[in-house]
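Figure 3 (text version): structure tokens given as input.
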């Protein structure tokens, strides 16, 4: 999954980064996950998800972030 937003810089995830998402990994409250919210994919820790977990579709756990090397 490629990030097209600068909203996640506080997590060390930048616009253009590629995320490796493991759909089979066991999810814990501290897992950084991709989930659906209002028709969009969102990143967040499970314990920070505002909606009820029963109403949230978690796509998978983020296991790696690949940063794009930018040439100057």
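Below: residues designed for each position.
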């Amino acid at each position: 999954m490629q990030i097209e937003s600068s909203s996640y810089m506080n997590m060390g995830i930048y616009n253009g980064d590629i995320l490796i998402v493991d759909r089979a990994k066991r999810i814990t409250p501290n897992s950084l996950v991709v989930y659906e919210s209002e028709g969009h994919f969102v990143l967040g820790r499970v314990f920070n998800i505002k909606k009820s977990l029963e109403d949230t579709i978690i796509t998978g756990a983020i296991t790696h972030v690949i940063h794009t090397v930018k040439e100057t």
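The radius of gyration is 13 Å.
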